[in-house]
């Protein structure tokens, strides 16, 4: 936290790019596969100003806007904020930001590309300052570069895309005690004059698993609180240890399956989870329904090894196509084995 800002980094992967080698071989008829996609990893640096209600994301990469929408949707739910709205980067917003940066003593103009794509010498800009200030305010430029001690900002007004590219100096961006993102985010917040917005709708595909990951985390939090409040057991999150279950609560090993809403709820176990379930005596499955609500419902299954699980396979797209085993139990089957259902209140209103 810095002032009114909460900063954090978020790492995610998505199937984003077509393998150019495979694509070339396919076009030549030398491979039996169609287009093979690769899993790319993206790092997003998020700054949330809780006073302004402003969420800014810095990222490197292309075609991840839908994933950023999903992340914004999750963050707004975490902070119990209204549904987020996406700011449109139009000509008016960019010219007003350019005017702010040019007028600020903290920023220095470092580059000017004309509408025609010509590099304009900065000496010429200074010599004809009034003329170029007028062009700047009217948006008669293709790109402008501003720089201060912390970062560099490039504004681009293109025929198809309009961008704000921010490059923070490594010494201020690198995670650690000396990290200082606030000056750059403060300047963006001051200079952005929001004109047009549109409501964000979460994606249905959830290609990067951002919505699913949030649902799972809420399910685990619900389970830990449920164990402590209902049974007085100290429960621990072990989901990142990959031991075949998510929560260790006393003698019980609990695998958590969480769902956001009333969709069909088949339980799927990985091979590791399935083998652990059949090996351990005190293995339980908790199915958490309405995990995004403040009072989710928890269904306890005491002897999940007695359930009928069907072995299935699915394609996993990484650097190559691979098959991943999983085991699925239909909703009507696991519901018949629920020994107890109860509700837990996660947070005070």
Brief write-up:
By secondary structure, this protein is α+β, with helices and mostly antiparallel strands. The protein has helices at 20-27, 65-78, 91-103, 122-127, 129-138, 170-173, 182-191, 210-231, 271-279, 331-335; strands at residues 5-18, 37-49, 54-59, 85-87, 108-113, 143-147, 151-157, 162-168, 197-199, 235-237, 247-249, 252-258, 267-270, 283-289, 297-301, 310-317, 321-329, 338-343. It folds into two domains: 5-199, no CATH class; 210-343, Trna Endonuclease, Chain: A, domain 1 (3-Layer(aba) Sandwich), CATH 3.40.1350.
Tell me what you see in this structure.
This protein is α+β, with helices and mostly antiparallel strands. It folds into two domains: 5-199, no CATH class; 210-343, Trna Endonuclease, Chain: A, domain 1 (3-Layer(aba) Sandwich), CATH 3.40.1350. It contains ten helices and 18 strands. The protein has helices at 20-27, 65-78, 91-103, 122-127, 129-138, 170-173, 182-191, 210-231, 271-279, 331-335, and strands at residues 5-18, 37-49, 54-59, 85-87, 108-113, 143-147, 151-157, 162-168, 197-199, 235-237, 247-249, 252-258, 267-270, 283-289, 297-301, 310-317, 321-329, 338-343. The strands form five sheets. It has a six-stranded mixed sheet with strand order 10-11-12-14-15-18, with helices on both faces. It is elongated.
